[in-house]
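Reagents: none. Just compute today. p450 monooxygenase.
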Amino acid sequence: MASDAAVQEAEAAIARLITAPMPPDPYPLYEAVRRVDRVYETPLVPGAYAVTGYREVSSVARMPGMRNGVRAAAMQREDWQEHESLRLFLRALVNLDPPEHPAMRDVASSVFTPHAIKQMRASIEELAERFVGELAEAARTGEPVDLVPALASPFPVAVISRMLGVPDDQGMHCYALANDWTRIWGGSFYSDEELAQADRSVLELRALFGELFRARRAEPRDDLISALVAQHEAGRLDDEDLMALATFLFISGFETTTNLISTAVHTLLEFPDQLELWRKDPDITVSAVDELLRHGTPICGTVRLTSETVEIGGKQIPPGRMLFLMTAGANRDPEQFTDPDRLDLTRNEGGHVSFGGGAHYCLGANLARMEAQVVLPMIINRFSGIEVAGEVQWRTSIGLHGFDHLPLKLTV
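Predicted 3D structure written out:
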């Protein structure tokens, strides 16, 4: 049985994890909860459990019959239908429950295919060369360069924009609007001001995507928006589903990757031996990217709601209970990973849970991996010296782990 002090520490950790801003280093907090219980019922949120164990998170992610907890939390607002951002958020693929989710997932999978992603390889390499080249040009001035606006954000936005068919000159504007929107994606962890801004940004995002839909109906192209419009005209999507799926695919194309790139570079600077190992041995690139995904999980968790009694970690959890699946904590579970806080780019101890699992496994997982496998080696090999040069700014949104600003001094 855990001591009173350990329980108090766990409660303080949960309070910090669910209160904005997101902690820059949340991992000791996950460990404080796990020391008390891997499936911990917290009195801070009645009827809720914090799940921090790797095998428990993996199990829940694959359990049938779970409902989306973030969706349930958002719908607890009596006025949710009055907010443009919440209405569209609740139609996003990531938030749907059966029977809507399988139907929408089938449509998404029919256009966002492994073949379509594989076909993007040449474009990804071209865009990575361009952005790393621009980074090098900026570095030649001798002034610090902020990795996030210079590369970590615009590179994946350019990739998904090209894949969808969003014009180059609109991609970063759509990105800014989408960032306003995703601030309310944590369920209830946002301010009234953030909700109002999200509503305004979603209205503009709708208008921009609506114009793209009309253009592709008139003149289809070889892009995902044209494919989605074809699915709409075939009766597989209604108007709102078309908007929700297109905007969700846009966001899923950059959110994880932006966080991954910035966090990966920062982590490699904290483990210079691993940085040098990768420079010397490019053959470890596949395992290196997956280890960086494990060590610095870009999206730290998700929420599920039990719809029936389930057993998790030896506990019988009744229906109607909220499960906070702390994937970042699970990725540092010492029962699964040896010395989990250490970065080991050659690690081979089973897969991480950064992309979730089961029916909600991330559609963009292969795209994010491919982008990171291309651009990260380019960065570490293009610059002989990389060091933090100024104050970093971590993202503040609950559940997102990455940087808003990462100034670097780069030696070409």
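Residues 228 and 288 are 34 Å apart (CA to CA).
Action item: order primers for follow-up constructs.
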